[in-house]
Amino acid sequence: MNDKTYMKELLQEIQSYKQEVSLMEVCGTHTMAIARSGIREMVPANIKLLSGPGCPVCVTSQGDIDAVIKLCQEPGIILCTFGDMMRVPGSDSSLQEERSRGADIRVVYSPLDALEIARKNPEREVVFLGIGFETTAPTIAVSLEQAERERIKNFSLLSYHKLVPPALEVIFSDPDIRVDGLICPGHVSAVIGLKPYELLAAKYRKPCVVTGFETVDILEGIIMLLHQMSQGEARADIQYRRVVRKEGNPVAVELLERIFQPEEARWRGLGPIPGSGLKLRSAYECLDAAKKYQLPQIADLPIKGCSCGEVLTGKISPRECLLFGRGCTPLKPVGPCMVSHEGACAAYYRYTPAKERN
Amino acid sequence: MKIDRVLLAHGSGGLMSQQLVEEIFKKEWNNPYLEPMLDGALLDLPAGRVVMTTDSFVITPLFFPGGDIGKLSICGTVNDLVACGAKPLFLSTALIIEEGLPMSDLIQIAQSMARTAREAGVQLVTGDTKVVEKGSADGIFINTTGIGVIAEGIDYRPQRIQPGDLVVVSGTMGDHGLAIMARREGLSFSTPVNSDCAPLFRIGQVLEAFGGNVRCMRDPTRGGLATVLNELARQSGRGIKVVEEDIPVNPAVAGACDMLGMDPLYMANEGKMVIVLAPERAAEILAELQKIDIAAEAAIIGEVRAEPAGLVLIETELGAERILGILEGEHVPRIC
Prior knowledge:
The complex is a heterodimer.
Chain A lengths: L2 H13 L5 E5 L2 H10 L1 H4 L4 E5 L4 H4 L2 H11 L4 E5 L13 H6 L3 E4 L3 H10 L4 E6 L6 H13 L5 E5 L4 H10 L7 E4 L1 H7 L2 H10 L3 E3 L4 H16 L5 E3 L11 H10 E8 L3 E10 L8 H4 L15 H5 L23 H4 L4 H7 L8
Parallel strand pairs in A: 1-2, 1-7, 3-4, 3-5, 5-6, 7-8, 8-9
Antiparallel strand pairs in A: 10-11
Helix pairs in contact in A: 1-12, 2-17, 8-13, 9-11
Chain B lengths: L14 H15 L19 E9 L5 E2 L2 E2 H15 L2 E13 L4 H18 L2 E10 L7 E11 L15 E4 L5 H10 L16 H8 L5 E5 L5 H13 L2 E5 L7 H10 L13 E4 L4 H9 L8 E7 L6 E4 L5 E3 L13
Parallel strand pairs in B: 4-5, 9-12
Antiparallel strand pairs in B: 1-6, 2-3, 4-6, 7-10, 7-11, 8-10, 9-11, 12-13
């Protein structure tokens, strides 16, 4: 049986499910894959697919973005960042604008590249902007250990890392958000394993399935969720078995624990969540840019008219935002969900179903 | 003392400039049009409409798997001429060199330009060299301008596209874009991906025999296939519907794109054509195309419709139809 026939069978199985349910995906890669493949249009209307806080750029709070913009204006600083952050609007500027005004901001693909920039520029201060979930944090931990070993003094990390499970807990306990089952992130789960979802599934009685990124994976993941629901079960399960193991990646987890400790972090749309951020342990304090440059906590100023917060929590679909496709497009984004490659708004905008065209 | 790097003095117009021209460019590109070293080239053109096109090449890294800036600068302009339906004949080139470029790199680039021009059957007939201070350029920038002549009965303008026509690509999509990104960012994949950079004049030769059955042709460089299809839909006022699974993509490119969150349909190609064919002889033309190595994987990927005018639709593997839009903003890899 080829992929196409198999996909048809999976779709038929999904279409035979008649209950009203809301499933949420919490990984930007899923958001993109679902929009790109057209899964949302092909499942019946009683199965609602919501996009959750799955894009690390999007969930970074406005105040934290403003703090980064302030930091890059300091003389002598080289700010290294992943490319996605460049165009994210702060309250009155963006990294892209700051670069055009002369700030030294470099786009890198790995924190190890940032470390290399620090080695080559001993007279400058190199700050790596750490934005990401459990997936990116381990490589950043490696770069910090390396900096420590080589005694590189001009390198530091501004850690705005976020942990996925505490945010899921907030979503599950919010009475305004109806989520009956969770399509769990494949990459993040490869690191953290199944345990966090087992706890959530048991506590909130909602099935969770760690799912891969191919169209077939996502359809299978949805079916596994629907099966559990029709049987009245709420377990954590793995569809993405070719990559994710139940125990996750203990080496990566141990590395994260050695370097970081959980702390409260601010999320766009969800507010401050205890234990959802990663802060450097005191042994690595000298590599902590927030301490090194005594960055103030800047208040979160809402962007006028922007509903990214509601989009990130699945309270509204991107197309329900009044700015979507009118005042806010990928070329002229108002909020981060339209900027980031994996933001829900960008995904919905780029992959418009034929029937939605106007 | 042997000078192993380009110096500002090489651009002064004096003896060193002359040496550079004599020892590198004239030597490598040697042909009867260049030989007299006049201020311009005197050309004899065959009968037919003349096509002229220009393109500038700025690329990091200068050397990449499957090519280099020299090869690219010839292919880019030759392929634009081919896409217009012309037989490429002559090229001019202007090189802006950053002070300090290793002489060996410059020689390699000049040789690569000569080799590619030979392969493509064009001659580099006139050129210019400038040297700018270190920091004012990125190694070397190259401009090429090309002239070609269109044979009687050939017209590849998009206005000729009709509902019912078939859309063909000459091979896999996204190879060049991914190869460059991988090399630039030090990403490595288990199967290395090469740029598809190649002169496509032979595609032009094959299609010429089919006259008006070939409606239109365009090379999907920057912005990739999706961008070119949108241009064709808009300029012809027709709709285009393509089928995702019929679009050839090298499995290594597909895998890497998945990993990076990139879309091969938006990635640049430097050795591919999008061709719109009248349905009557399409199968025959496709078979002829597949006989040449640079188009061995040519495939029909979709068709032209009257509606939706100006838009491109793609049918996903799941059978959903969505709009294949033009890329807005940059195409950057994802974080997580």
